[in-house]
Amino acid sequence: MAASGLESRLKELQLPDEQVQFILTEWKRICIARRRDIGFILTGIGGGVMLLSFLLSLFMFQQGQSFKYVLYIFTFIGIVIAFKGLVDILGW
Asked: Rounded mean pLDDT of 16-39?
């Protein structure tokens, strides 16, 4: 729900302006904290995917198989997930 929609619903309840502003501030703080937590989780998942890419390419190299597709595809996916997490952490 957008902040403007929440504000209009609170004003329909005829709450004082100070209380409406306090509720909006707390609501925004909770949304930012939740987004930051999701960002940390996504950054960890991205790092895990990149680690998996490294381990798979190392294993395939030891077996003498071609590892370039595994290396580049999993690394790219891991970087995209990690950057999405970093964007959520920084709040852009």
From this structure: 90
Burial class (CB in 10 A: 0-12, 13-18, 19+), 73: exposed
What's the rounded Cα separation, in Å, for the pair 21 and 6? Answer: 11
- For the chain, the domain total comes to 1
Q: Which domain holds residue 56?
A: 27-90
Single pTM value for the model:
0.78
From CA 50, how far away is CA 62, in angstroms rounded?
18
Answer with the residue of higher pLDDT: 13 or 85. 85
Cβ contacts of residue 86 below 8 Å, gap of 6+?
A: 39, 43
